[in-house]
Amino acid sequence: MKIEELKKVIEILRDEYPKLNAPIEKLKAHKKGDPFRALVCTLLSTRTKDETTAEVCQRLFERIKNWEDLLAIDLKELERLLYPVGFYKNKARYLKELARQIKEEFGGEVPSDLEGLLKLKGVGRKVANIVLVEAFGKPAIGIDTHVHRICNRWKLVSTKTPEETEKALTQILPQEYWMDFNRLLVAFGQTICKPQKPRCDVCPIRDFCSFFKLSQTS
């Protein structure tokens, strides 16, 4: 897929997004553009379905309102609140530790730059980039399994890891498309371009897709 084709694809996905009713939208509703909520939700979403994360976040934010609440809550109670997100015991410890870091090292505020976010316990590049976009409105590309898979299916990149995909995309994708790239592709990947048995028959961008074209000739 060429960049000019990708621009058309992004516009199509923007139009289609409201119709998809994807799980990512349920999770985004809990973030509310708030740095505290955005960081907690995104960290919990790693290796967990968005539907599950959204349910856990709803329960969690009824009990936890800020970093002080996270510091004060008993670890076992926090673990119970986080179940059944993936690696919930590890994530409970991460949240307690990053709450301490934010209070002691960042003056109680979520850092608004990549370097600062990556210093927080349990925060990798994907989480940091998504927080930059959703909490601070800064251009970044969060690469999860959906984005990585779809970009390779489109032959937009030829990469083996999400880190390689991020590096490649930042070099070829105009920055004006960075902000909603993750949101659009995750929703598309959750509902149409699935890991197994992608729904090419209803795909709105299949005429641009290398994967679809190849499947028609095989």
UniProtKB/TrEMBL annotation:
Reactions it catalyzes: 2'-deoxyribonucleotide-(2'-deoxyribose 5'-phosphate)-2'-deoxyribonucleotide-DNA = a 3'-end 2'-deoxyribonucleotide-(2,3-dehydro-2,3-deoxyribose 5'-phosphate)-DNA + a 5'-end 5'-phospho-2'-deoxyribonucleoside-DNA + H(+)
One GO term of the biological process aspect: nucleotide-excision repair
EC number annotated for this UniProt entry: 4.2.99.18
Alphabetically ordered keywords of this record: 4Fe-4S, DNA damage, DNA repair, DNA-binding, Endonuclease, Glycosidase, Hydrolase, Iron, Iron-sulfur, Lyase, Metal-binding, Nuclease
Binding site for [4Fe-4S] cluster: C193, C200, C203, C209
Residues annotated as domain HhH-GPD: 44-191
Entry-linked Gene3D superfamilies: Helix-hairpin-Helix base-excision DNA repair enzymes (C-terminal), Hypothetical protein, domain 2
Highest taxon, organism lineage: Bacteria
Family: Belongs to the Nth/MutY family.
Protein name: Endonuclease III
Gene name per UniProt: nth
